[in-house]
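Researcher: Please predict.
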Amino acid sequence: MEKNGSISRNNLNDLLESKLGFEYNKEAKTIERMCAVLNKKNIEMAEQLAKVGHERHMLNSGSIFSNWCSCTTVYMLTKRLRKWSNARKK
């Protein structure tokens, strides 16, 4: 699922549901089901897209973060968590 640019919460939920094959509800325990659907390639692609979007915002939107639309730095967290998880396995 590749998406660049802003998207409304309702449209995002619809897109997630169509790609995952089940209802997305952040209050429900869907994270386990989502993790089962995702694979390493999907996660790495999502991290790269988030990084590019973040870099684009830094270049074009200035330093007032509240003016940024649809930007995330979660890619930094997922990379660190994977690195930590891999280190624990050794």
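Model: The chain has two domains: 1-38, 39-90.
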